[in-house]
Amino acid sequence: MTVDEARFLLDRSVGGKLLIARLRGAGWVARTLAEEYGDERAQRMPDEEWIAEGTRSGYVLLAKDHRVATRPLEAQAIYVHDARVITFARGELIAAEMGDLCLRHERAIHRLAQVQPPFVMALSESGLRRKRLNVV
């Protein structure tokens, strides 16, 4: 996957329509869980399931909660499936703020499509920082 081919799958917690519209407006190739799997299924998918399926489909995953790196089931799914996950370092951000951060660090985010997985990167004002995966 090259930087030009980076594709993103957005977790249901990241503001849905507002953030996806902002990213697409900037030229990102991005889909929401509801678009990819249907609204009903997307609402019921456990994190470890969408992590596995989104990764198998070639997406870089965008989630709101950086604690996916520390919760055992999610961390194991990221590790086992070689997922590339970007989260937000601050969980209280609204969609507009998430969009601002993504666009401010767009080049670095798109380069992650070339970084050897698995990983979780937390995105903040200062950029991307790798989170330690809680796997045994």
Q: How many separate helices?
A: 7
Low-confidence stretches: none
Structural class: alpha/beta
How far the N terminus sits from the C terminus, by CA atoms, comes to 28 Å
Tell the overall outline.
globular
Strand order of the largest sheet: 2-1-3-4-5-6
Helix content: 40-55%
Q: How many extended strands? A: 6
**Strand residue content:** 15-25%
Radius of gyration: 13 Å
Helix and strand sequence: EHEHHHEHEHHEE
Q: Kindly state the mean pLDDT as a whole number?
A: 92
Major sheet, described briefly?
6 strands, mixed
Features of the shown structure:
single chain, alpha/beta, globular
Please, could you describe this protein's structure?
The chain is an alpha/beta fold. The protein has helices at residues 17-25, 33-37, 39-44, 47-56, 72-80, 95-104, 106-111; strands at residues 7-10, 29-32, 60-65, 84-88, 119-124, 127-131. Strands 2-1-3-4-5-6 form a 6-stranded mixed β-sheet, with helices on both faces. Helix 1 (17-25) links the parallel strand 1 and strand 2 (29-32). The longest helix has 10 residues, at 47-56. The protein is globular.
List the helices and strands and how they pair.
Elements: E1 7-10, H1 17-25, E2 29-32, H2 33-37, H3 39-44, H4 47-56, E3 60-65, H5 72-80, E4 84-88, H6 95-104, H7 106-111, E5 119-124, E6 127-131
Parallel strand pairs: 1-2, 1-3, 3-4, 4-5
Antiparallel strand pairs: 5-6
